[in-house]
Amino acid sequence: MEKSKAMQLVLENGMIFHGQSFGYESPRAGEVVFSTAMVGYPESLTDPSYSGQILVVTYPLIGNYGVPQTGMENGLSIFYESEIIHVNGLVISDYSFEYSHWNANKSLSDWLKENKVPAICGVDTRELTKVIREYGSMKGKLVFPDMPNIDFVDPNKENLVAKVSCNEVIRYGNGSKKIVLVDCGVKHNIIRCFLKRDVTVIRVPWNYDFSTLDYDGLFISNGPGDPEYCEATIDHLRDAIHGEKPIFGICLGNQLLSLAGGASTYKLKYGHRSHNQPVRMVGTNRCFVTSQNHGFAVNNETLGNDWEPLFINLNDGTNEGVRHKTKPFFSTQFHPEASSGPTDTEFLFDEFLNLIDK
């Protein structure tokens, strides 16, 4: 094992977890959350929905397959979910200093250092996860004993979506159907799923007035933080739901569509971040295993008369999607495009596009 510098994860409740650094050697603060996914750390670290958070990975061995090579296709990263790492820090149990994979071109450690992201290994992540499950997601900081201390920060008290959204209109593809994609922190695989279905995607910033554009369907992406900060997006969606053009939302998009429809949202105790969240389609016995990454949820009790739950989480009964009772609007709290994770529900992209033909 390579010689590493001593490092600490300090939680706001006073608990301290000791370990060794294997990333960038600089202190960093954020919200400490955990994911139970066994694989997919390159995708998770580049998921904009993790912006402002220190990610705890519960699977014990991380880094054994390195990270994939960089590359672009159709203006999108081929193997990552965005162009940069979005987490504020990474916490794991055992780090594999040796890696092997046909597509790997560097170690996880080197990649983290290049992107100036601190990381700690040697932590009892089972104990840490039990603490988070009991007390909820909390503020934390990664610090070094021989460096100046830093303050805790709460990323949920700022508009994280404005930080991760694009700043200009971007077009992808040249299909017959035009989809406006409101970028609240979109994962690249969502755009890939549209492109492989021969769709023209018009990606716009989170606060863009898309009513001025010519389009066939509207999509609202995933993204980080408290959805109530996205007031501009919600206002534009309120106007859109007066029309008839199909609307589809994923993750944060589910919350924003619900808020536009008059519902409310709330913060979950420790969120859903995994590849194995079971959901049931309301009114059926159809169940699916889904990939998820969110800390807020829609309050089913606040849905208006025109809306109803579409999916329900089988673990805790929380909302996993909504639909309009008469208009072609629906959304999911989970990720049908996964990456990484199961693709059981990717058919929902086809259902959305089919609504355009009706």
TrEMBL record:
<keyword id="KW-0665">Pyrimidine biosynthesis</keyword>
<dbReference type="GO" id="GO:0044205">
    <property type="term" value="P:'de novo' UMP biosynthetic process"/>
</dbReference>
<dbReference type="GO" id="GO:0006526">
    <property type="term" value="P:L-arginine biosynthetic process"/>
</dbReference>
<feature type="domain" description="Carbamoyl-phosphate synthase small subunit N-terminal">
    <location>
        <begin position="5"/>
        <end position="143"/>
    </location>
</feature>
<dbReference type="GO" id="GO:0004088">
    <property type="term" value="F:carbamoyl-phosphate synthase (glutamine-hydrolyzing) activity"/>
</dbReference>
<dbReference type="InterPro" id="IPR050472">
    <property type="entry name" value="Anth_synth/Amidotransfase"/>
</dbReference>
<dbReference type="Pfam" id="PF00117">
    <property type="entry name" value="GATase"/>
</dbReference>
<keyword id="KW-0315">Glutamine amidotransferase</keyword>
<feature type="binding site">
    <location>
        <position position="49"/>
    </location>
    <ligand>
        <name>L-glutamine</name>
    </ligand>
</feature>
<comment type="pathway">
    <text>Pyrimidine metabolism; UMP biosynthesis via de novo pathway; (S)-dihydroorotate from bicarbonate: step 1/3.</text>
</comment>
<dbReference type="InterPro" id="IPR035686">
    <property type="entry name" value="CPSase_GATase1"/>
</dbReference>
<keyword id="KW-0055">Arginine biosynthesis</keyword>
<comment type="subunit">
    <text>Composed of two chains; the small (or glutamine) chain promotes the hydrolysis of glutamine to ammonia, which is used by the large (or ammonia) chain to synthesize carbamoyl phosphate. Tetramer of heterodimers (alpha,beta)4.</text>
</comment>
<feature type="binding site">
    <location>
        <position position="255"/>
    </location>
    <ligand>
        <name>L-glutamine</name>
    </ligand>
</feature>
<dbReference type="Pfam" id="PF00988">
    <property type="entry name" value="CPSase_sm_chain"/>
</dbReference>
<dbReference type="InterPro" id="IPR036480">
    <property type="entry name" value="CarbP_synth_ssu_N_sf"/>
</dbReference>
<keyword id="KW-0547">Nucleotide-binding</keyword>
<feature type="active site">
    <location>
        <position position="335"/>
    </location>
</feature>
<feature type="binding site">
    <location>
        <position position="223"/>
    </location>
    <ligand>
        <name>L-glutamine</name>
    </ligand>
</feature>
<dbReference type="InterPro" id="IPR002474">
    <property type="entry name" value="CarbamoylP_synth_ssu_N"/>
</dbReference>
<dbReference type="GO" id="GO:0006207">
    <property type="term" value="P:'de novo' pyrimidine nucleobase biosynthetic process"/>
</dbReference>
<comment type="pathway">
    <text>Amino-acid biosynthesis; L-arginine biosynthesis; carbamoyl phosphate from bicarbonate: step 1/1.</text>
</comment>
<dbReference type="InterPro" id="IPR006274">
    <property type="entry name" value="CarbamoylP_synth_ssu"/>
</dbReference>
<dbReference type="GO" id="GO:0005524">
    <property type="term" value="F:ATP binding"/>
</dbReference>
<feature type="binding site">
    <location>
        <position position="293"/>
    </location>
    <ligand>
        <name>L-glutamine</name>
    </ligand>
</feature>
<comment type="function">
    <text>Small subunit of the glutamine-dependent carbamoyl phosphate synthetase (CPSase). CPSase catalyzes the formation of carbamoyl phosphate from the ammonia moiety of glutamine, carbonate, and phosphate donated by ATP, constituting the first step of 2 biosynthetic pathways, one leading to arginine and/or urea and the other to pyrimidine nucleotides. The small subunit (glutamine amidotransferase) binds and cleaves glutamine to supply the large subunit with the substrate ammonia.</text>
</comment>
<keyword id="KW-0028">Amino-acid biosynthesis</keyword>
<feature type="active site" description="Nucleophile">
    <location>
        <position position="251"/>
    </location>
</feature>
<dbReference type="InterPro" id="IPR017926">
    <property type="entry name" value="GATASE"/>
</dbReference>
<feature type="binding site">
    <location>
        <position position="252"/>
    </location>
    <ligand>
        <name>L-glutamine</name>
    </ligand>
</feature>
<feature type="region of interest" description="CPSase">
    <location>
        <begin position="1"/>
        <end position="177"/>
    </location>
</feature>
<dbReference type="InterPro" id="IPR029062">
    <property type="entry name" value="Class_I_gatase-like"/>
</dbReference>
<feature type="active site">
    <location>
        <position position="337"/>
    </location>
</feature>
<keyword id="KW-0067">ATP-binding</keyword>
<keyword id="KW-0436">Ligase</keyword>
<protein>
    <recommendedName>
        <fullName>Carbamoyl phosphate synthase small chain</fullName>
        <ecNumber>6.3.5.5</ecNumber>
    </recommendedName>
</protein>
<feature type="binding site">
    <location>
        <position position="295"/>
    </location>
    <ligand>
        <name>L-glutamine</name>
    </ligand>
</feature>
<feature type="binding site">
    <location>
        <position position="296"/>
    </location>
    <ligand>
        <name>L-glutamine</name>
    </ligand>
</feature>
<comment type="similarity">
    <text>Belongs to the CarA family.</text>
</comment>
<dbReference type="GO" id="GO:0006541">
    <property type="term" value="P:glutamine metabolic process"/>
</dbReference>
<feature type="binding site">
    <location>
        <position position="225"/>
    </location>
    <ligand>
        <name>L-glutamine</name>
    </ligand>
</feature>
